[in-house]
Amino acid sequence: MTDLISQPAYYDDLGLSFEEAWNLVEAGSTDRHSPAHMPAVGTVDETGAPQLRIMVLRDASRDARTLRFHTDLRSIKAAQVRNNGATSVLFYDMSAKLQIRMSGQTQLLPIGDVADAAWSNSTPFARRCYMAEAAPGLPIAGPSSGLPEWIQGKKPDEAQLADYRQNFSTMLVEIQSVEWLYLANPGHRRARWQWQDAQKSWQGNWLVP
Length: 209
Hints:
Pnp Oxidase, Chain A, 9-stranded antiparallel sheet, 23% helix
């Protein structure tokens, strides 16, 4: 009983587990030191194979059921999203022993208020990567940052960045399912919640870990 008593309040509580999952994810969008700040994001390529990469979580909203990332419109990732919006995002907090998988559909939003604000609020150095002369992922003859020689190692100003805004896009994932795994010595806990459009609510149930 001692081990069970020492477990967190959400250990056997489905509702609290769901709240904790979103608490962890939302913290990742505001705290760069959070374990949820840089999740693994999976998309599907043209052959149907999953493709993973680490991305910075820019925003998370449990009310809107969305996660926001940034990407280069010329990238292979963006092409994959255009072809198939199915996306999975994996978070892991080692200290809390929590794994969270969120899945849904992604749309690219290169224009509009959200994209404009995201671009403006990013640092010049963060936006400098969109100044690459060719699309990310294309083969090149040798090692290179892909940036023009004149901006290598330098901080661009707003005038220099203006022409490259067209390469930038927000990437909005609308979450449709959340899966949770808590690792504990007395026994792991696993659950899944699925968004129900008709009821406009989440339906959750426990799973065998």
